[in-house]
Amino acid sequence: MLVxxxxxxxxxxxxxxxxxxxxxxxxxxxxxxxxxxQIISRLKDAGYTAYIVGxxxxxxxxxxxxxxxxxxxxxxxxxxxxxxxxxxxxxxxFRLVHVVFGPKIFEVSTFRSISEGTVGNEFGSIEEDVxxxxxxxxxxxxxxxxxxxxxxxxxxxDIRKHMLRPVIAMDRxxxxxxxxxxxxxKYSATTHARMPHSLRHKIRASxxxxxxxxxxxxxxxxxxxxxxxxxxxxxxxAMDTDLFMYLQPAATGMIYDDKDFERDYMDSMRELGELNxxxxxxxxGRKLVYFIRDFTKNLTDWEKEIKGKTAFTELYGRxxxxxxNFVLPMNPVRKELEFAVRSVLMSLGVKSNQKxxxxxxxxxxxxx
Length: 368
Hints:
Blueprint: E1 2-7, E2 13-20, H1 22-25, H2 34-45, E3 50-53, H3 55-62, E4 70-73, H4 77-83, E5 87-90, E6 96-101, E7 104-110, H5 126-129, E8 140-143, E9 148-151, H6 155-160, H7 173-176, H8 179-191, H9 197-206, H10 215-226, H11 231-240, H12 244-247, H13 249-257, H14 259-278, H15 284-297, H16 302-307, H17 312-326, H18 334-347
Parallel strand pairs: 4-7
Antiparallel strand pairs: 1-2, 2-9, 3-4, 3-8, 5-6, 6-7, 8-9
C-alpha cells in the first residue's frame, strides 16, 4: 500500500490518499473493456490524466461485472472532443462527453469543483471531484497504466467491511439530489453493504423529496430495477425505507392493504431477479410482466369475461389503460408495455389472434 501526499494551505506535507497496488485490489485488466482502456491511453498520450471511476471500480473489486466504464480526466469537454472524432458533448450546464465505439457509449467527464456545492458545474481537481461522489465505495479512481486504485475517502476499507458510507455531508446529500437515496438502496442491495442506522433514518426522513423528481428520471431509475438481477432485494430496501411509495404508489397502496397481494407481488420481484440472472438480454416487455401480472389478475373475473366472450380488443384496451396508470410514474416504451399486457392476458386464458414476437421489431429508418 502506497500513500499519495499533498500540501495544506500552509504548505505543509499531508497525506491525501491511499494507493492500492495490483496485489491489494485484485483488479485484472482483462475484465476492463479494451475501448475504455484505449480512451484512457489516448488521453494520457495527449498529456492529460485519466481514470476509470465510480461504479465500475467498485464492481471490479467486489467481483461483479460492470455494465458501464465511466472515465474522469483533467481535460475539458472541448479538448476531449478534439481528441476523439467519435464523440459528442452532451448537457447544457453539466457538460460531459460521450465517446462512441459502435453500440457502446463511454461517458467521459472532467474533474468537478465543489465551489458551488456537490451539484455545481465548475471544473476542478481530483481532490475536489472525490468530494462530489455520493458514497465512498463509488469514490475510487483506477489507473490502468499503473494498475493502482487511488482512495481519498476510505472506500476500499468500506467495501471490505460491507459498509455503505456517504462522502457528502448528511444534511446536504439528499437535499441536493434526492435520487441519491435510490442509489443508496441499490448499492446496499447489490453489494450486500450495510447502511448505518443514521443513513437509513435519514433516507426515511427525506423520502418525500423524491416527489420533486421528474417522471423521466424516476423512469430511468425504475428501469434499472426492472433490469437488475437484484430486483427483489432493491424493492425490499425501497419498501423498508419508504421510497417505494414514490416509485410505484399504486403497488405500494395495494401491498399495504392486502397481504395476499404483497406476497404475490414480492414473489414476482424474486422471479424477475432470477430472470435477469439467467437471461439478462430478454426484451423489456417480458420483464414488465412481473410488475403488472398480480395487479391484472385482480382487475376482473377473468373466467366470466372469457365465458361471456368479451372481445379481445375491448379487454385489451381496458387492461392496458389500467396497467398504464398502475405503473406510473414509470413510463416505459409503449410497445413494451403492450407486449407485457398481451402476455399477461394470454396467461389468464384471454386469446388473441395476433402473434407476439419474443424480440421487439427493429425500427424503420427514416426514409425522408
